Amino acid sequence: MTDTYLHHEDHIESSDLLKDIVIGMSDGLTVPFALAAGLSGAVDSTSVIVIAGIAEIAAGSIAMGLGGFLAGQTEQDHYNSELKKEYWEVDNIPQKEQEEVRIFFRELGLSSEVQEKAVIELTRDKDVWVKFMMKHELGLDEPDPKRAGKSAFNIGISYALGGLVPLSPYFFIADSIEALKVSVGITLVCLFIFGYFKSKLTGVNPLTGGLKVMLIGASAAAAAFIIAKLIEG
Amino acid sequence: MTDTYLHHEDHIESSDLLKDIVIGMSDGLTVPFALAAGLSGAVDSTSVIVIAGIAEIAAGSIAMGLGGFLAGQTEQDHYNSELKKEYWEVDNIPQKEQEEVRIFFRELGLSSEVQEKAVIELTRDKDVWVKFMMKHELGLDEPDPKRAGKSAFNIGISYALGGLVPLSPYFFIADSIEALKVSVGITLVCLFIFGYFKSKLTGVNPLTGGLKVMLIGASAAAAAFIIAKLIEG
């Protein structure tokens, strides 16, 4: 392993962490923001809004964190069970599996001659063959066992931190509509900033991306406010 | 297009719809459930819980629906911009792009002779070549432009319907702790059922999957209940 390779790996790790933080925060900003806005339209007491907001943040970050962790485990189980199945197939129905390799090369537009040679060479080593089937027949990459858990934890924590932003004015301002005005201001700015960075990380135009994330948050908050107002009558 | 092909497409469409419904519902059951449970620990009036719950459902379904729709658009934009870039590269730096095709075949363990022939055949047709680079260098499949919007809509609606399950007892029972008991009962049963089907659709052991989804919901609700109780003092 060369230094360049190590450096590259470092780069991936830190950008993964950044991605988790940005995803968690921009989601965390949206739903607690909309919930607080909705309740501001219906209840005067900010203490109820603070309790509801914190209950939502706890619920949301656990659902995202634990959900992500268990999804990661499931992905690992799924990979292992498919791997076992492919080894069995390669051992027991090799003709059928060879035919599937041939179809892959045929679909790339290669000639019968090259298809034939590629199939013979690729199916010589059983491990290479199975790995090929996993990736190109089933579209499965070997999951990183630590990655899913860490990622879920990071997203969960970031969701909680993001959720505290729209809620913070309600800690200090007694009137719910006054608190809502401050909450709207700071949250829309934060949503734009996080949408901007989220887009940069995924290689999308950051200005459009920032506006989209801001639009989602604003629509959700407006809808929650109007609906809560209507129910409260 | 043969009848068999059409039949196959039908099958995919209906299972996609089913998947959207199950994903939306099992998520919709979780967060509104936990929010209602949290508030039940802190407020006596079920009317506040109903308002908060409906505000959350509106916020969550818009965030999921609109968020999913915009993410689908972004994916399409991203695909188109990468496609343009690959055509440019194939036109302007063909040697480098041919080398990348060669590396793909080398990593499959093919001999130099077969690598060479495969590269020549594959890079003969520019469209085939670009499509290959998109899929195997960048890991991008052409997104279905209608699919993302429809899927987001289905998930959003299912989230809202799922969210009404844990909330429904609060419509009819005046005491919040009494309503919570009924809510816990029906929601855990529904979470198990939806987790069971979610796992079946994704090819995972349905019993374990059902228990996992139920566990996530129960943990989120318990945490929200305890935290709200602590804040309320």
TrEMBL record, chains A, B:
One of its GO terms (biological process) is intracellular manganese ion homeostasis. It is found in: Endomembrane system. The chain crosses the membrane at residues 21-43, 49-71, 152-173, 179-197, 209-231. Keywords: Membrane, Transmembrane, Transmembrane helix. InterPro entries: Ccc1_fam. It comes from the Bacteria. The keyword Transferase does not apply. PANTHER family: FE(2+)/MN(2+) TRANSPORTER PCL1. This is Iron transporter.
